[in-house]
Design brief:
The protein has about 120 residues and is α+β, with helices and mostly antiparallel strands. It contains three helices and five strands, in the order E-H-H-E-E-E-E-H.
Length: about 120
Protein backbone atom coordinates (compact mmCIF):
# COMPACT_ATOMS: atom_id res chain seq x y z
CA UNK A 1 0.00 0.00 0.00
CA UNK A 2 1.26 3.46 -0.88
CA UNK A 3 1.02 6.27 1.66
CA UNK A 4 1.22 9.87 0.48
CA UNK A 5 0.95 13.22 2.24
CA UNK A 6 -0.45 16.54 1.13
CA UNK A 7 1.75 19.55 1.86
CA UNK A 8 -0.86 20.85 4.32
CA UNK A 9 -0.80 17.53 6.19
CA UNK A 10 2.99 17.68 6.41
CA UNK A 11 2.74 21.16 7.96
CA UNK A 12 0.08 19.97 10.43
CA UNK A 13 2.19 16.96 11.35
CA UNK A 14 5.36 18.98 11.86
CA UNK A 15 3.57 21.54 14.05
CA UNK A 16 1.84 18.90 16.19
CA UNK A 17 4.91 16.65 16.47
CA UNK A 18 6.71 19.44 18.32
CA UNK A 19 4.00 19.32 20.95
CA UNK A 20 3.33 15.56 20.95
CA UNK A 21 6.64 13.65 20.73
CA UNK A 22 5.13 10.21 20.08
CA UNK A 23 3.31 11.35 16.93
CA UNK A 24 5.80 9.79 14.50
CA UNK A 25 5.53 6.31 16.00
CA UNK A 26 1.76 6.75 16.41
CA UNK A 27 1.44 7.43 12.68
CA UNK A 28 3.39 4.24 11.99
CA UNK A 29 0.91 2.25 14.09
CA UNK A 30 -2.00 3.96 12.33
CA UNK A 31 -0.57 2.94 8.94
CA UNK A 32 -0.46 -0.69 10.11
CA UNK A 33 -4.18 -0.50 10.94
CA UNK A 34 -4.93 1.02 7.52
CA UNK A 35 -3.02 -1.75 5.74
CA UNK A 36 -5.37 -4.28 7.33
CA UNK A 37 -8.58 -2.24 7.04
CA UNK A 38 -8.26 0.86 4.81
CA UNK A 39 -11.71 2.16 5.75
CA UNK A 40 -11.09 1.50 9.43
CA UNK A 41 -12.62 -0.67 12.06
CA UNK A 42 -15.38 0.29 14.46
CA UNK A 43 -17.04 3.54 15.38
CA UNK A 44 -13.84 5.64 15.32
CA UNK A 45 -13.78 5.81 11.51
CA UNK A 46 -16.39 7.74 9.52
CA UNK A 47 -16.61 7.98 5.71
CA UNK A 48 -17.43 11.65 5.06
CA UNK A 49 -17.33 11.54 1.25
CA UNK A 50 -17.47 8.68 -1.25
CA UNK A 51 -17.19 8.29 -5.00
CA UNK A 52 -16.67 5.22 -7.17
CA UNK A 53 -12.87 5.30 -6.72
CA UNK A 54 -12.33 7.43 -3.62
CA UNK A 55 -13.40 7.60 0.01
CA UNK A 56 -12.58 10.50 2.34
CA UNK A 57 -12.38 9.15 5.89
CA UNK A 58 -12.23 10.95 9.24
CA UNK A 59 -10.76 8.95 12.11
CA UNK A 60 -9.83 9.32 15.74
CA UNK A 61 -6.08 9.21 16.00
CA UNK A 62 -4.62 7.72 19.16
CA UNK A 63 -1.56 9.57 20.45
CA UNK A 64 0.48 8.09 23.31
CA UNK A 65 1.55 11.58 24.42
CA UNK A 66 -2.09 12.60 24.96
CA UNK A 67 -3.48 9.45 26.60
CA UNK A 68 -6.78 10.33 24.92
CA UNK A 69 -8.19 10.21 21.41
CA UNK A 70 -8.30 13.98 20.91
CA UNK A 71 -6.53 14.04 17.56
CA UNK A 72 -8.37 13.58 14.28
CA UNK A 73 -6.94 12.55 10.95
CA UNK A 74 -8.52 12.96 7.52
CA UNK A 75 -7.33 10.76 4.67
CA UNK A 76 -8.32 9.70 1.18
CA UNK A 77 -8.52 6.03 0.30
CA UNK A 78 -8.07 5.53 -3.45
CA UNK A 79 -8.84 2.19 -5.07
CA UNK A 80 -7.39 1.25 -8.45
CA UNK A 81 -6.00 4.75 -8.89
CA UNK A 82 -3.60 3.43 -11.54
CA UNK A 83 -2.54 0.04 -12.83
CA UNK A 84 0.83 0.21 -11.06
CA UNK A 85 -0.42 1.38 -7.67
CA UNK A 86 -3.66 -0.45 -6.99
CA UNK A 87 -4.41 1.04 -3.59
CA UNK A 88 -3.13 4.20 -1.99
CA UNK A 89 -3.91 6.38 0.98
CA UNK A 90 -3.21 10.09 1.01
CA UNK A 91 -3.29 11.92 4.32
CA UNK A 92 -5.05 15.28 4.05
CA UNK A 93 -5.34 16.76 7.55
CA UNK A 94 -4.34 16.17 11.16
CA UNK A 95 -5.71 18.36 13.93
CA UNK A 96 -6.06 18.58 17.69
CA UNK A 97 -9.70 18.44 18.78
CA UNK A 98 -9.04 20.93 21.59
CA UNK A 99 -8.03 23.66 19.10
CA UNK A 100 -10.39 22.92 16.25
CA UNK A 101 -13.90 21.49 16.43
CA UNK A 102 -14.27 20.06 12.90
CA UNK A 103 -12.25 19.20 9.81
CA UNK A 104 -11.36 21.87 7.24
CA UNK A 105 -14.05 21.30 4.61
CA UNK A 106 -12.39 23.78 2.23
CA UNK A 107 -9.19 21.72 2.31
CA UNK A 108 -11.15 18.56 1.42
CA UNK A 109 -12.95 20.34 -1.44
CA UNK A 110 -9.60 21.67 -2.71
CA UNK A 111 -8.16 18.15 -2.56
CA UNK A 112 -11.09 16.69 -4.50
CA UNK A 113 -10.83 19.40 -7.18
CA UNK A 114 -7.11 18.70 -7.49
CA UNK A 115 -7.86 15.04 -8.33
CA UNK A 116 -10.34 15.93 -11.07
Amino acid sequence: MNFKYTSEFQKDFKRLSKKFRSLDSDLGEFKKVLEEAPLGIGKHFIVISKTSQLCIVKARFFCQSLKKKDLRIIYAYLENSQIIEMVSIEFIELYFKGNKENEDKERIIKYLKQLS
